[in-house]
């Protein structure tokens, strides 16, 4: 009987110890997640400024010397410098748009025609100032070692302002009925013309929000009037002073800077999600 009582007491002590150990057990705390750093993009708005050189090409034209349209035998539009500025927005990492304005210095125009043989010819001269306003869209092709190549296209209008138009005619033989030299001045014509552009270039990161941009741009300016009726009044004055061109092609080489607003990109912590471990179940 005494032995049975001792065994029963030991069993009670063992059960009490197990219950106490269960009450004292605390689950280990969940591990603290480490932040995953992701970049925060700067504002998409940017300003740009450019300078460039335009290689001009005239597609030809017509003049109106005696009541009938005649085509120039040769036309030439000289090269010129231009400068421009614009504002744009980086829509996505690979797509952006901007609105630009470029003003070109006077590009000299010359039209040459022969009246019958080389002893009779006329030269028409003027100077054209051009303001192009274009809405542009670009596709950035990825950034490689800080360099981002891109292609783009634009559409808009160009205001062409032709200065005084001078027409000089020289005849030195029987082809024009005798030797003479005549010169007439006409009003230059100003108007807006439809323009489209195609671009390809690359930008280089100078700082986190400043880029150096260089590109080639092709601009086509549709045809229009170059001069109107005669200005000078003399014994040989006539009302046939109108002339037209078939269009102008401009091959631009330009370079400039793009400044993005909003400061530089900053890292922002993004915490991973961890599942809380389930509580232990005791039976």
From TrEMBL:
InterPro entries referenced in this protein's UniProt entry, alphabetically: Beta-barrel_OMP, OMP/PagP_B-barrel
Outer membrane protein beta-barrel domain residues: 12-261
SUPFAM superfamilies: OMPA-like
Alphabetized UniProt keyword annotations: Signal
Signal peptide segment: 1-21
Protein's name according to its UniProt entry: Porin family protein
Protein source organism: Pararhizobium mangrovi
